[in-house]
Design goal:
This protein is 51% helix and 3% strand. It is mainly alpha-helical. The protein is globular. This is Mediator of RNA polymerase II transcription subunit 31. Belongs to the Mediator complex subunit 31 family.
Length: 130
């Protein structure tokens, strides 16, 4: 069996090359590179309501999807980190999604609302510091 990160379909893969690196020959899927699609998806993880949606669709209990979430941790390292618009909540939620208990608990509207409130509070505090 091959080792290394796993994609959603279970194949072994490496993180995509950032589009800014000039990889002109990278395949496109619906007009987008894998880098662009994974960037959009990982950034959507900053939204607690989206996490709840994934849980309601039972994706967070799918072993292949959980493996994909693990694979996406490469976004927490350079050079990928610099492409995240909201690295704080994106990476926090990606880290939380590595925990089975969180993947089960995010189905709760109470947890979703608590995460939204925590995010708003952090935003207000950040602006007050400046």
């Amino acid at each position: 069996m091959a080792s290394g990160p796993m994609s959603v379909d279970g194949s072994t893969t490496e993180p995509p090359v950032p589009s800014a690196s000039g990889a002109q020959d990278e395949p496109k899927y619906g007009g987008f590179t894998r880098f662009e699609m994974e960037l959009e998806f990982v950034q959507s993880l900053a939204n607690p309501q989206y996490l709840n949606h994934l849980a309601s669709r039972k994706l967070l209990t799918n072993p292949a999807f959980v493996a994909y979430l693990d694979y996406l941790q490469y976004w927490s390292r350079p050079p990928y980190l610099k492409y995240l618009t909201y690295p704080g909540p994106t990476l926090k939620n990606l880290e939380l999604l590595q925990q089975e208990k969180f993947r089960q608990d995010i189905i709760s509207p109470d947890l979703v609302h608590a995460l939204i409130a925590e995010g708003m509070k952090a935003g207000v505090e950040w602006h007050q510091k400046g």
